[in-house]
Amino acid sequence: TQLLEQSPQFLSIQEGENLTVYCNSSSVFSSLQWYRQEPGEGPVLLVTVVTGGEVKKLKRLTFQFGDARKDSSLHITAAQPGDTGLYLCAGAYNDMRFGAGTRLTVKP
Amino acid sequence: EAGVAQSPRYKIIEKRQSVAFWCNPISGHATLYWYQQILGQGPKLLIQFQNNGVVDDSQLPKDRFSAERLKGVDSTLKIQPAKLEDSAVYLCASSWDGGTQYFGPGTRLLVL
């Protein structure tokens, strides 16, 4: 079983729609990171959250770290085709543990 | 600033053959990581180096996988002999101080 469970596994939406993806665990993390990975490339770091309850915004992306530092969410407003990719969360445990990712497709 | 370089980008081999991957981290980055990403899964850490020393290799299948970073810069990851289940993307990442990791494009391995 994965230490970090991401949902949904797949998401296909139309341009302009809003969406939220989730990253959940029963373990507490000292920090949690979100990455985006495009086909044929390595993951690229989007954000690191450290404090329980923390909210960070990156343009149309809003990241929230749960109060208990066990879960996180990523909300995208007015999705664009350029947002298409695999969104991975990773938690600092003994080492960095990744979830399986949410594969997002935004159709024009 | 140049990113993490990996080669080859693609490799197809038959089971029981050997294969080696090469990684050149970002200049000045002391920490280097090798990850295995199987299709449909997130990256799994295989080994972490700090300069030329191993920090964590607890998830490296040591009966067939080996890695080295002799001069604390470039690194190679070897599989000998390969199995079908080794088909995956092998990602190398580096960080300056164990913080933010920068990933290379990966080597896509197919074992037939």
Provide structural commentary:
The complex is a heterodimer of chains A (108) and B (112). Chain A has 108 residues and is mainly β. Chain A has strands spanning 5-7, 10-14, 19-24, 32-37, 44-49, 55-58, 61-65, 71-76, 85-92, 96-98, 102-107. In chain A, the strands form 2 sheets. In chain A, strands 2, 4, 5, 9, 10 and 11 form a 6-stranded mixed sheet that branches. In chain A, strands 1-3-8-7-6 form a 5-stranded antiparallel sheet, with no helix packed on it. In chain A, a hairpin with a 2-residue loop joins strand 6 and strand 7. Chain A is globular and about 40 Å long. The N and C termini of chain A lie far apart (35 Å). Chain B is mainly β. Chain B has strands spanning 5-7, 10-13, 19-24, 31-37, 44-50, 53-56, 65-68, 75-79, 88-95, 102-103, 107-111. In chain B, the strands form 2 sheets. In chain B, strands 2, 4, 5, 6, 9, 10 and 11 form a 7-stranded mixed sheet that branches. Chain B has a 4-stranded antiparallel sheet with strand order 1-3-8-7, with no helix packed on it. In chain B, strand 5 and strand 6 form a beta hairpin. Chain B starts with a strand and ends with a strand. Chains A and B meet through strand 5 and strand 10 of A and strand 5 and strand 10 of B.
